[in-house]
Amino acid sequence: MLLDLLARRHRGVLVTLKRDGGPQLSNVGHVYDGTRRRIRISSTDDRAEVRNLRRDPRASFYVTTDDQRRRKNSLMAVPGPHARTEASSERLRANHRPRPLSR
C-alpha cells in the first residue's frame, strides 16, 4: 500500500533534522523510483532539507491519501551521482506543471 501510494502521489513532506536536533518539515515534490526503491525529491542545494541531509542523512517522508489516511516511512538519504538524472528531473517537472483547478 505505501509503495503504491508513493507512486501515485507526487507531493509529500520530507522530515529532516536541524543542527539542534529539532525537526525540519519541508513540503516537496517527488517521484518514486520503484525499481531502485528510491524517493527522488525536487530541491536545490541552498535549501534547508539539503543542508540537513548532508550533515545527517536520517529522514522520514510523509504522504497522505485523498481521504487523509496517512502513510509514513523512515529513509536514509543517498548522495551521489544518481541524485539528479534527466529522466527523474523530467518526471518531477511533468508532475508539477500547472493544471486547471477542478470544481
TrEMBL record:
<feature type="compositionally biased region" description="Basic and acidic residues">
    <location>
        <begin position="83"/>
        <end position="93"/>
    </location>
</feature>
<dbReference type="InterPro" id="IPR011576">
    <property type="entry name" value="Pyridox_Oxase_N"/>
</dbReference>
<dbReference type="Pfam" id="PF01243">
    <property type="entry name" value="PNPOx_N"/>
</dbReference>
<dbReference type="GO" id="GO:0016627">
    <property type="term" value="F:oxidoreductase activity, acting on the CH-CH group of donors"/>
</dbReference>
<feature type="compositionally biased region" description="Basic residues">
    <location>
        <begin position="94"/>
        <end position="103"/>
    </location>
</feature>
<dbReference type="GO" id="GO:0005829">
    <property type="term" value="C:cytosol"/>
</dbReference>
<keyword id="KW-0560">Oxidoreductase</keyword>
<feature type="region of interest" description="Disordered">
    <location>
        <begin position="66"/>
        <end position="103"/>
    </location>
</feature>
<dbReference type="GO" id="GO:0070967">
    <property type="term" value="F:coenzyme F420 binding"/>
</dbReference>
<protein>
    <recommendedName>
        <fullName>Pyridoxamine 5'-phosphate oxidase N-terminal domain-containing protein</fullName>
    </recommendedName>
</protein>
<dbReference type="InterPro" id="IPR012349">
    <property type="entry name" value="Split_barrel_FMN-bd"/>
</dbReference>
<feature type="domain" description="Pyridoxamine 5'-phosphate oxidase N-terminal">
    <location>
        <begin position="4"/>
        <end position="65"/>
    </location>
</feature>
<dbReference type="InterPro" id="IPR052019">
    <property type="entry name" value="F420H2_bilvrd_red/Heme_oxyg"/>
</dbReference>
